[in-house]
């Protein structure tokens, strides 16, 4: 067992970084969180707000090789590419698409089921006593299909979920409309995934957690991480644009911005940004009752505090370029089709960056044998869902405790 009174630097103040900081703080460590913008400034604010414990089917299902070119060229497809960025994407895409196999889907699903299955309980444990508890609700995560045929075309994914313990109930659209009339006549089949949850305001939730962390004695430094600090025994902190932050251990949780610092830590991370978009309908005339994945458009409609968030689509375009018009226009088109009679005060738009690895698995664990540096990043679409458990795992590893799950699929050293 290691000395629990360690000084630890956590780089990143999204849900993963803040979760890590709180669990480390509860274990008795002294924690400094460093972030260039502050808590929930990126994807931890703009995500769909779903605690998606059944999100265990990767994008890279068999046949994606054949489908991807047509999807990119189809203006109604949820996949977009900024063509000027494509040459930089080719090495990543080659590695990414090579995982479109049954074997990878099977191994991915088993690994992610272990990480995500208890996500609601993990959030409740993290939020206990912080003032953030009221943001968490437990409700079904629904998938709406236009027809029975379209649902049956997704049988591959539903079998994977069932085989890994995801509990769901299939209803007709009419049966579901009796529960939520807002979707009447829009879906032929609705699948209701059980044991899921929702965060009613993801940005406010993470900020409340961060406020508690600081109140309990944690330090939050607004600065950009520019380099790492090493000595003969390992990593001893980070350099920032306002000075050094030194500690006994360092945790890298910078999401899509982790690549350059990861390389300085010795990780050859093939990391790309999956740019995600949302629109919000503020003060709507009607509110849906539960989160809904619109299967035909691959976007999620989530009721939130005073607004409906419609989040989804994927765009590959790097970290530096601004938002594109086409993904937002596609979301607006789909929303107008689903809610033709809905009125609202205004529509807000957002674009953010999801960190994506070639095998779609996050990196969780020590980055070298010195066990002075750790990675907690690459969660793609499930950063909010997996953040609390990832933070708890990192805290246990730093504390020298045994974890009860197989972490081998998430080892950061596989990219060395």
From TrEMBL:
Name under which the protein is recorded: Dehydrogenase
GO cellular component, one term: cytoplasm
Statement: the UniProt record of this protein carries the keyword Aminoacyl-tRNA synthetase: no
UniProt keyword annotations, A-Z: Oxidoreductase
Pfam families assigned: DAO (PF01266)
Signal peptide: none
Domain FAD dependent oxidoreductase: 7-397
Gene Ontology molecular function: oxidoreductase activity
Family matches, as InterPro entries: FAD-dep_OxRdtase, FAD/NAD-bd_sf
């Amino acid at each position: 067992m290691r000395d629990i009174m360690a000084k630890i630097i956590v780089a990143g103040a999204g849900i993963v970084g803040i979760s890590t900081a709180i669990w480390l703080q509860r274990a008795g460590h002294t924690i400094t969180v460093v972030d260039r913008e502050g808590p929930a400034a990126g994807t931890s604010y703009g995500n769909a707000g779903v605690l998606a414990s059944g999100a265990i089917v990767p994008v890279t299902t068999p046949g994606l090789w054949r489908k991807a070119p047509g999807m990119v060229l189809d203006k109604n497809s949820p996949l977009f590419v900024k063509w000027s960025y494509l040459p930089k994407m080719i090495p990543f895409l080659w590695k990414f698409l090579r995982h479109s196999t049954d074997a990878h889907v099977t191994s991915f699903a088993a690994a992610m089921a272990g990480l995500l299955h208890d996500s609601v309980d993990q959030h409740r444990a993290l939020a206990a006593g912080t003032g953030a508890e009221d943001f968490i609700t437990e409700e079904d995560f629904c998938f709406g299909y236009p027809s029975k045929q379209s649902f049956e075309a997704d049988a591959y994914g539903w079998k994977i979920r069932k085989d890994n313990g995801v509990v769901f109930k299939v209803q007709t659209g009419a049966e579901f409309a009796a529960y939520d009339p807002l979707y009447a006549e829009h879906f032929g089949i609705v699948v209701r995934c059980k044991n899921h949850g929702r965060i009613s305001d993801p940005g406010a939730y993470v900020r409340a957690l961060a406020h508690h962390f600081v109140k309990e004695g944690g330090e939050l430094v607004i600065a950009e991480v520019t380099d790492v600090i090493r000595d003969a025994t390992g990593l001893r902190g980070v350099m920032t644009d306002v000075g050094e932050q030194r500690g006994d251990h360092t945790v890298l949780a910078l999401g899509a911005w982790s690549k350059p610092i990861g390389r300085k830590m010795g990780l050859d991370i093939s990391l790309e940004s999956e740019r995600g978009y949302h629109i919000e309908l503020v003060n709507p005339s009607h509110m849906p009752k539960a989160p809904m994945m619109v299967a035909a458009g691959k976007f999620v409609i989530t009721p939130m505090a005073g607004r409906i968030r419609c989040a989804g689509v994927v765009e590959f375009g790097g970290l530096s370029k601004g938002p594109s018009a086409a993904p937002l226009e596609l979301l607006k088109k789909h929303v107008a089709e689903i809610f033709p009679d809905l009125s609202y005060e205004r529509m807000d738009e957002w674009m953010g960056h999801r960190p994506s690895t070639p095998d779609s698995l996050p990196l969780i664990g020590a980055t070298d044998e010195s066990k002075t540096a750790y990675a907690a990043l690459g969660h793609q679409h499930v950063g909010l869902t997996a953040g609390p458990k990832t933070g708890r795992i990192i805290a246990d590893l730093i504390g020298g405790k045994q974890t009860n799950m197989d972490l081998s699929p998430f080892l950061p050293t596989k990219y060395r």
